[in-house]
Amino acid sequence: MEASVAIQTLPAAPDDEELIRIVDEVIAYIAASGYNYYVGPFETTIEGPYDELMDIVKECQHIAIRAGAPSVAAYIKVSYKPEGEVLSIERKIGKYHQ
Predict the structure, then answer these.
(1) Residue 1: per-residue pLDDT
(2) Half-sphere exposure at residue 11, Cβ-oriented, CA atoms within 13 angstroms
(3) Is domain 3-85 annotated with CATH 3.40.50.1220?
(4) What is the pLDDT along the chain (98 residues), one digit of tens a residue?
(5) How far apart are the C-alpha atoms of 26 and 20, rounded to whole Å?
(6) How many Cβ atoms sit within 10 Å of the Cβ of residue 11?
């Protein structure tokens, strides 16, 4: 696995319930990608090939808009190592979730 990306999608929404509904659609899209992912309270982390993850990051914005958000902001963190492996989600936090 050459990349790990953490994405926090922040759709504009009139209330918390609508915000959660839109974010849930984004997370469902990430889950359907087939890549390993972890949902945290502020962001979702996904692991896989760099180019595919960048396409997923881009599509997350489109998903939020199609779900009804008039606008969306995102905070993205990327760990990329084209010649080797980045630290996995399991290695970073597995010991805390046994």
Answers:
(1) 82
(2) 26
(3) no
(4) 899 999 999 999 999 999 999 999 999 999 999 999 999 999 999 999 999 999 999 999 999 999 999 999 999 999 999 998 999 999 999 999 87
(5) 10
(6) 25
**Structure tokens, 30:** 């990430």
Query: CA–CA separation, 87 vs 98, rounded Å?
Result: 18
Q: What pLDDT sits at residue 61?
A: 97
Rounded to two decimals, the pTM is: 0.93
Helix (H, G, I), strand (E, B) or coil at 95: helix
**Helices (H), ranges, 1-98:** 16-32, 50-66, 89-93
For the chain, domain boundaries: 3-85
- Going by C-alpha positions, the residue among 57, 62, 53 that lies closest to residue 8 is 57
Structure tokens, 7? 């994405």
Q: Are 74 and 61 contacting, i.e. CB atoms less than 8 angstroms apart?
A: yes
